[in-house]
Design a protein that fits this description.
8 strands, 1 helix, eight-stranded antiparallel beta barrel, alpha+beta, 15% helix, 193 residues
Length: 193
């Protein structure tokens, strides 16, 4: 009987930090979860859906479209191009690089970032806030796949890991996060909260 109680006590101690970490992760995620809060979901909230709100849609609002506004285009505005501005380039600036700054990795226990969701509100990836101008993008497995550079108050351009602009970009949804657009300005259905 004593051995059984001792075994149960040791098992509880061994697994309790893991359970606490999972609970903590869930609490952090819950404030970003569009399945639990319909206000965070473009599928149910037309105010943050670029298909129903033209002010946050770069096809109609050229102020937030890098292909129609040189101020938010890294091809025209060198100050927001990481190939020219090394302060924005994680390959040059170690403070922004997840290999050197382990706290930027989604697998790090102290990570506190944003989540990228699909149109159906499934997690697609993770976003780490590396600085006020740079956000790192990670896929669903936690592999670094690029980064976003702030181009204006409402736009972030997406670059691959090597600093080449993909033509894709984020636009602020005027409420709770960002929507992700392709080169043509079409909403991909992806959103960040």
């Amino acid at each position: 009987m004593v051995k059984t109680l001792l075994f149960v006590f040791i098992a509880f101690i061994s697994f309790s930090p893991h359970l606490e970490a999972q609970g903590y992760d869930y609490v952090l995620f819950k404030k970003h979860d569009p399945k639990r809060d319909s206000n965070l979901s473009p599928a149910t909230n037309p105010a943050i859906n670029p298909d129903s709100n033209q002010t946050i849609n770069p096809v109609y609002n050229w102020n937030i479209n890098p292909f129609h506004n040189n101020d938010v285009s890294p091809a025209a505005n060198k100050s927001i191009n990481p190939m020219v501005n090394s302060e924005l380039n994680p390959q040059i600036n170690e403070v922004l690089h997840p290999v050197f700054m382990k706290s930027l990795l989604p697998a790090n226990p102290s990570w506190n970032g944003l989540y990228m969701f699909t149109r159906s509100n499934e997690i697609f990836g993770y976003i780490s806030l590396a600085s006020q101008y740079v956000m790192l993008s990670f896929d669903n497995n936690g592999s670094w796949n690029g980064y976003f550079v702030k181009a204006g108050r409402n736009t972030y351009n997406f670059f691959n890991v090597f600093g080449v602009w993909t033509g894709m970009f984020l636009c602020y949804d005027n409420a709770s996060g960002f929507n992700f657009f392709d080169k043509s300005g079409k909403w991909t259905g992806m959103h960040i909260k």
